[in-house]
Amino acid sequence: MSRSHCRRWFSDERAADLSGESGCGYQNAVELTQSVHAYSAPVMARCASAAALVMWERDVVRPAARRRYGQDVARIELAAPSYQCRRIAGRRDRRLSEHAHANAMDIKGFTLADGRTVTVADGWRGAQRDRLFLHDVRDGACTYFQAVLSPDYNRDHRDHLHFDLGRDHMCR
Question: Within 10 Å of residue 158's Cβ, how many Cβ atoms?
Answer without folding.
Answer: 14
